[in-house]
Automatic annotation (TrEMBL):
Main location: membrane
Name of the protein described by the UniProt record: TRAP transporter large permease protein
Pfam families in alphabetical order: DctM
Source organism of the structure: Parasedimentitalea marina
Keyword annotations of the record: Cell inner membrane, Cell membrane, Membrane, Transmembrane, Transmembrane helix, Transport
TRAP C4-dicarboxylate transport system permease DctM subunit domain sequence ranges: 12-436
Protein role: Part of the tripartite ATP-independent periplasmic (TRAP) transport system.
Subunit structure: The complex comprises the extracytoplasmic solute receptor protein and the two transmembrane proteins.
One cellular component (GO) term of this entry: plasma membrane
Lipid bilayer topology: Multi-pass membrane protein
PANTHER family: C4-DICARBOXYLATE TRAP TRANSPORTER LARGE PERMEASE PROTEIN DCTM, SIALIC ACID TRAP TRANSPORTER PERMEASE PROTEIN SIAT-RELATED
Location in or out of the cell: Cell inner membrane
Family that this chain belongs to: Belongs to the TRAP transporter large permease family.
């Protein structure tokens, strides 16, 4: 049996199992292992399973072992732990409260503060779903209590939560960097301007929404003095310090991303303990949750690494590159096709699953066209970010729906999301059209 045919059957099997909601890590590892066994078994022309066992087990164990012992992968548990510790110490939530105080007199101010809070939360934790879940519990009930339109109250947090994919540190950037062998430091810095551009776009959506329909966001009647505002801003200093260490340290060449994660984790724990916002029980809970999330991500990554090795055996990627080269597609049509594929997959699959499933095929194409992998990484993460709020399976939307319950049905949340999606598409077009938006900062790094 031809290896490329086995590869196509394996891809179809993976898509089918994922459509049935099989776990992504198990699906990739199981399908790749079985398909690799058949490739080695049929290598001599006839079916010889005894020849395939040793080769298959060697490929599976060596690839998963090499990945788990990757130095770059160690930053994932560090950043996840940083997010949990910073939340337990109330460092991340103070950003929202500071923005809430300063924007209280602005129409739609609480919704804007929610987006700013999501951006600040993302700048420390790097997880979109964790951001949507945490900020949704804090911001959404308050907006609903104040009489906000439930579409605005829920959609602003669901959309703001996606900033965790683009604003560094980002778990998706780490995985992309590992699988494409690109600099994670440069990827982090490349996401800053597109992330801030997206955040500004979301604030503009809220401003225009409230200007057109003032009843959607009643103004807070409580008067807040300038003393209270400066006090709230001052209380948020730990978050600004951590963000400065992460971005400033990486951009200035002082730290690697892994070192920045370790330093900030230690600093967050010491700040929390010194301010008596963090207890030993909180630290234990944070470490336990970190272990659970890290194990899930590592299992997916190990399955993906096995799948990547299997794809290399099939020769499917070179065949696709040859087909595209012969078709003489322009860069525009290549990127358009990639964007459509990612947006369609984003309607049904989770971001990590989409990335590990598609990177073995699209990266060789991009390299053939001589495109910058740092810029392409930002484009991919932006596409995955859009998928988090795209129906019918927008993960962030379902997270918010679970938080608010019957107060905002799924259809109402998606109705509000449409306005934020329009900004996402505009930012995506800008990033794709003007690569300098993504490459300006990484190209100026020391």
């Amino acid at each position: 049996m031809d290896a490329s045919l086995i590869g196509l059957i394996a891809f179809a099997a993976v898509l089918g199992l994922l459509a049935l909601r099989a776990p992504i890590g198990f699906t990739l590892a199981a399908v790749a292992t079985v398909a690799t066994f058949f490739i080695f078994a049929f290598r001599s022309g006839s079916f010889a399973p005894e020849r395939a066992i040793r080769a298959t087990t060697s490929m599976v164990f060596s690839n998963s072992f090499d990945l788990i012992h990757s130095y770059d992968l160690s930053m994932i548990p560090l950043f996840i732990a940083l997010g949990h510790v910073a939340y337990k110490a109330e460092i991340t939530t103070r950003i929202y409260y500071a923005a809430r105080v300063w924007l209280s007199a602005v129409p739609g101010g609480v919704a804007m503060a929610s987006v700013v809070g999501c951006g600040g939360f993302s700048a420390i934790t790097g997880s979109s779903i964790a951001c949507a879940s945490t900020m949704g519990r804090i911001c959404t009930p308050e907006m609903l209590r104040m009489g906000y339109d439930n579409r605005l109250a829920t959609a602003s947090v669901a959309a703001g939560g996606t900033l965790g994919s683009l604003i560094p540190p980002s778990v998706l950037f780490i995985i992309y960097g590992i699988f494409t062998e690109t600099s994670i430091n440069r990827l982090f810095v490349a996401g800053i301007l597109p992330g801030l551009l997206t955040l500004a776009g979301f604030l503009l959506v809220i401003f225009l929404w409230v200007k057109r329909d003032p009843a959607a966001a009643p103004v807070d009647p409580n008067r807040i003095s300038y003393t209270e505002r400066f006090h709230a801003a001052l209380m948020a200093w730990p978050a600004f310090v951590l963000f400065t260490v992460i971005i400033g340290g990486i951009y200035g060449g002082i730290f690697t991303a892994t070192e920045a994660a370790g330093v900030c984790l230690t600093a967050a724990a010491l700040i929390g303990l010194a301010q008596r916002k963090l207890t030993l029980v909180d630290i234990w809970d944070a470490l336990r949750d970190t272990c659970l999330q890290t194990a899930a991500i590592f299992f997916i990554a190990a399955g993906a690494k096995i799948f990547v090795a299997f794809v290399a055996l099939t020769g499917v990627a070179p065949a696709i590159v040859d087909a595209v080269t012969q078709a003489e597609l322009s860069v525009f049509w290549l990127m358009f096709a990639i964007a459509v594929i990612y947006l369609l997959l984003g309607m049904f699959l989770d971001p990590i699953g989409i990335m590990v499933l598609t990177l073995p095929l699209v990266v060789p194409l991009v390299e053939t066209y001589g495109l910058d992998l740092i810029w392409f990484g930002v484009v991919i993460i932006k596409l995955l970010e859009i998928g988090l709020i795209t129906p019918p399976v927008g993960l962030n939307v379902f997270v918010i729906a679970n938080v608010v319950g019957k107060e905002a049905p799924i259809d109402r949340i998606f109705a509000g999301i449409a306005r934020f999606l329009s900004i996402d598409v505009i930012v995506l077009i800008l990033i794709m059209t003007f690569p300098v938006i993504s490459l300006l900062l990484p190209n100026s790094m020391w």
